[in-house]
Amino acid sequence: MPAVLVIHGPNLNLLGTREPDVYGQTTMDEINARLARFAATCGIDLDCFQSNAEHELVERIQRSAADGTDWIILNPAGLTHTSVVLRDALAAVGLPFVEVHLSNPHAREPFRHRSMVSDLAAGTIVGFGADSYLLALQAVVNRIEPPG
Ligand code: DQA
């Protein structure tokens, strides 16, 4: 069964109450539940991980190299704009990933316009709120080769 790892970066555990005008009212648990329901219908093994700590995100990415993960869906949150170490971890592991954002960082403050990971990503999906994650999973499903 193809395996997809969803990684949520810092502060995304606060979704639902955090700046709802920017990020919407859907909680991270609800996003994960929606993804899990969609994954189940597609025969995808889904694992979701969140951390506020950069090193834990790096360690989870490193583990994905050996735990059977086929694709990563990643919202690096604020680390998008700053983290060389997250970028290095993704490059080291070499798994294909989709970068997602709930908001459209390009329509926000200039410091959000730069992503440290976009050029490594298979694609990016931004600006569709919680749907950004579901659109990313749909894109991954379309790219996973059927068995046999
Ligand atoms: C975010 C956008 C980032 O700029 C911000 O720091 C976040 C969330 C998004 O999903 O829109 O924490 O990644």
Brief summary:
By secondary structure, this protein is of the alpha/beta class. The protein has helices at 20-23, 28-42, 54-64, 84-93, 131-143, and strands spanning 3-8, 45-50, 71-75, 97-101, 123-126.
Question: Your description of this structure?
Answer:
With 148 residues, the chain is of the alpha/beta class. The chain has 5 helices and 5 strands. It has helices spanning 20-23, 28-42, 54-64, 84-93, 131-143; strands spanning 3-8, 45-50, 71-75, 97-101, 123-126. A 5-stranded parallel β-sheet has the order 2-1-3-4-5, sandwiched between helices. Helix 4 (84-93) links the parallel strand 3 and strand 4. Helix 2 (28-42) packs parallel to helix 5 and helix 3 (54-64) packs parallel to helix 4.
